[in-house]
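Comment on this:
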Amino acid sequence: MDKTILIVDDEQGYRDLLHMELSDQGYTVLTAAGGSEALEILKREGVALIITDMKMPKMDGLDVVIASRRLRPGIPIILMTGYAIEERVQEALTRKASVCLRKPFNINELTDLVKTTVS
């Protein structure tokens, strides 16, 4: 099974941290600084999981969920947020995002979620 994960976050620090942690666990990790870049990657790469921040300029996490569902209907999506933007989070979960992690989260919480999602 493909073990490629796409990280979408406008914060370089989070992209770098998650890239390092997940790469160390044997996953292939692709990163995007925003939604449009993420969609370009999705069009050309086999991706098993998307991990996206909710609050980003231009396309937020909900926009990423909606657009990703059009390209890859069954792809699992994990949301991350440091903000209380509940209605957008709820809408994304309604559209079958798998789970929402609150930043800052324990990295083990994320890696456990990834293991159960991409096995």
Observations:
- The chain has a mean pLDDT of 90.
